[in-house]
Task: structure prediction
Amino acid sequence: MDPLVAASSVFAASLAVGLASIGPGLGQGNAASRAVEGIARQPEAEGKIRGTLLLSLAFMEALTIYGLVVALVLLFANPFAA
Amino acid sequence: MMLVSFPMLAALEVGKHFYWQLGNLEVHGQVLIVSWIVIGVLVISSALASRNLQTVPSGLQNFMEYALEFIQGIAKDQIGVKHYREWVPFVGSLFLFIFVSNWLGALVPWKLVKLPEGELAAPTSDVNTTIALALLVSLAYFYAGFKERGLGYFSKYVQGSPFLLPLWVIEDFTKPLSLSFRLFGNILADELVVGVFVLLVPLVIPLPVMILGLFTSAIQALIFSTLAASYIGEAMEGHGEEAHDDHHA
Amino acid sequence: MMDLIPRLSGGLSTHWVLLAAEAEGKGGLFDVDATLPIMAIQFLILVAILNELFFKPLMKVIDERDQSVRFGIAEAKERLSKAKSMASDYEKQLAQTRRDIQELIAAAQADANKIRNQQIADALTEAQLHVQNAKAEIEQQKQEVSAALDQQVTSLSHQILTKILGDLVQVS
Result:
């Protein structure tokens, strides 16, 4: 395998995971803080808020996972590996 | 595979499959084996639970009724009280199959079983399974929309500006794509993370990660079935944004 | 690097993963093959089996229980309303009885008062009669006594007169 392809694949894989985790990280923090505010304001709605929060956190998490999938493709199923 | 120069990761055996030959078709044996185990677990437990039904439930029946009411809750929330009953089996089977697959994949030490190539893992960590499930969901919501509203279901494509037509079509492709890759990516990522931790530190340290993995697995099963139900419900009650908002409210 | 270009352009379809697999034998992360339709079919079979074994019977049981509970609740509500109406009936009766008793008490009191007043009046008239009788008697006796006294005074004064004057005066 071409060392240049290998090196750029590994580099790209790390970038894919790293960059893909920035946005969801911010989003998850935002969502969690709002959820905590909501719970503090309305402790009786905690169950509902927690459920919705978990669901939306998982949706945001999926974005990072897409980055991870791309990284995994680059590492383990690289289409350019001769 | 290609990372032979990374001996540590190479031990994870990513992307290797235990191939079976069916005529001139190839199938992933390890995926099918575990999926049969999952199906067996589901069928046997539901047969045991419904073998001796009582008005006042106890033991296994109680647990299965709890599961059923949970599933009914998902379907009712997303599809609506009017139509949810006929979709409970589909949505519920999705949830149960994915949930049991994920948890069996995470809890059973499959590595102890030696295969000629590849290793046993959760069926949901293979793209074939998740794409199959996602395509079934697509078919299901087309069927639901068509059955409920006839040809009127396809009116959403031509209503509004023609500029929106490609967007609707693209949405029909992105739905199964995101469904399948979300599930596949999450489960594979869980298994890989746990695998890497086990390789690095074999004792105790991977436990919290494994527990987190169990949690994510359950949530992914919930998300998959919730979204499937939501797509079905959306297709049935017309494509209004207000309906969409109701689903995620 | 240059020899990658045709592979890249040729592999932009879904085959690109399989190309990688070909490069190192079979395999790959995105190896889509006959497992997919098999999985779909066996999932549909699972749906059918679970529908028969799990969803239908359990939903039926739950529905029946719902119905019986709903029936029980309706029955209990009916009983409750019956009990409430009975209680209000009893209360009404109780109030009626109380009123009756009070009337009875009032009547008895009025009766008793009347009797008492009657008796008091009777006693008063009798007492007055007695007093009058006594007064009349006393008057009579007074008259008698005063008459007797008058007589005695006359006789005494006569005696005194005879004693002092002797036979000077003729006794008239």
